[in-house]
Amino acid sequence: MAHLIFKDVNKVYPNGYHAVHDFNMEINDGEFICLVGDSGCGKSTTLRMIAGLEDITSGEFYIDGVLANQTSSRDRGIAMVFQSYALYPHLTVYENLGFGLTLEGVDADLIDEKVRQTAKILGLTEYLERFPRNLSGGQCQRVAVGRALIRKVNIFLMDEPLSNLDAKQRVTMRSEIKQIHRSIGATTIYVTHDQTEAMTMSDRIVVMKSGGYVQQIGTPYELYFHPCNLFVAGFIGEPPMNFIKGKVENASVKVGDKSVDLTPVVDDVKAIEGREVVFAFRPEAVKLPSEVAGDHYVIESTVDLTELLGDTTNVYANVDGANVILKVNPHHTPEIGGKFAFCVPYSAAYVYDCETELAVKSSVKRH
């Protein structure tokens, strides 16, 4: 296991492009960390700096208390799994798994023991004599993971390893990678653009924004229930959080044809009087008037489209010009073109300042 510290780490390329801005974080021994964000946000660049494949322009990077800025890749105790698998096509699964140990001069008997042990863990025993061209995408990815796993390093780096797999394979591999992490306990940093992977696999998530800016670091629970700004609120969650923009007047904001009193969900509503804000709520948080218990808002909408998904129905609706998505019980699917009233519990309502894009302080208990 390894303990990592980043202090004001920046990456600026020779052409002046600033890929990562002031990255600060402490990663504990054995943590599973996901870097997530849209394309060009600097997550893969950050991973490559950890691996030593990219130089750090400024700042300090420590591994187990030792400054590692100038440490070579091979001396960092790191194994990396790439998106493209990077398997040797002319080598069998057995040979691919043992290749790194062969280069290190490990005894053949020990290599054989480690290869077969790793293959058993990953369910690859029956494929050891096959070549990569005879494997499925999921099997190739398991070989790539196994090649990293066999080295018994303290730090695993994974750069979108599941992006080439189909939906079913991704679900299976997510589970396998998480189980492997629990069994070996190595510190793992995992890059993905898929928030589902980040939410289901990680101990903590780093949300990054285009230009290399860290927006929020927290547990999946913290990011889902306490997004600190509009970007995180809109990025985490599928479908994304609904945003309705308005101006605060007399402690209220207009949502549709109604004025919504912000006093129950904002600690100091006087501080935002006269300001443009975003009233926000998640699609899955809405309730029907017959279902709701406790304090809530009632909002009127017009239904534009519905999508039956089996366990739920996505309702695409319009609230006085603002488009929203609602998840409802399929047995209560409204008719297209009709009026639809729904409830937002106080505990599910968020308010963001349009100018700063930050969440307005609220002491409401989220659940």
Polypeptide structure, described:
- The chain has two domains: 227 residues, 3-Layer(aba) Sandwich (Rossmann fold); 112 residues, OB fold (Dihydrolipoamide Acetyltransferase, E2P), CATH 2.40.50.
- Strand 7, helix 5 and strand 8 form a beta-alpha-beta unit.
- The protein contains eight helices and 19 strands.
- It has 367 residues and is an alpha+beta fold.
Short note summarizing the structure:
With 367 residues, this protein is α+β, with helices and mostly antiparallel strands. It has eight helices and 19 strands. The model has no long low-confidence stretch (mean pLDDT 91).
Task: Write the SSE topology.
Elements: E1 4-12, E2 18-27, E3 32-37, H1 43-51, E4 58-63, E5 66-67, E6 78-81, H2 93-103, H3 108-122, H4 137-149, E7 155-159, H5 167-184, E8 187-192, H6 195-201, E9 204-209, E10 213-218, H7 220-225, H8 230-235, E11 242-247, E12 252-255, E13 258-261, E14 276-281, E15 296-308, E16 313-319, E17 322-328, E18 339-345, E19 350-353
Parallel strand pairs: 3-8, 3-9, 6-7, 7-8
Antiparallel strand pairs: 1-2, 1-4, 4-5, 9-10, 11-14, 12-13, 14-19, 15-16, 15-18, 16-17
Helix pairs in contact: 2-3, 2-4, 4-5
* Whole-angstrom Rg: 24 Å
CATH architecture of the largest domain: 3-Layer(aba) Sandwich
The CATH superfamily of the largest domain is identified as P-loop containing nucleotide triphosphate hydrolases
Give the assembly state of these chains.
Answer: single chain
Percentage of residues in strands: 25-35%
Q: Could you give the order of strands across the largest sheet?
A: 6-7-8-3-9-10
In whole angstroms, the N-to-C terminal distance is: 34 Å
Main pleated sheet: 6 strands, mixed
SSE arrangement, N to C: EEEHEEEHHHEHEHEEHHEEEEEEEEE
User: What global shape is seen?
Assistant: globular
The domain tally reads: 2
Report the CATH C-level class of the largest domain: Alpha Beta
Residue stretches low in confidence (pLDDT < 50, at least 5 long) are none
Mean pLDDT, all residues = 91
CATH fold-level name of the largest domain? Rossmann fold
Number of helices: 8
Number of strands: 19
Structural class: alpha+beta
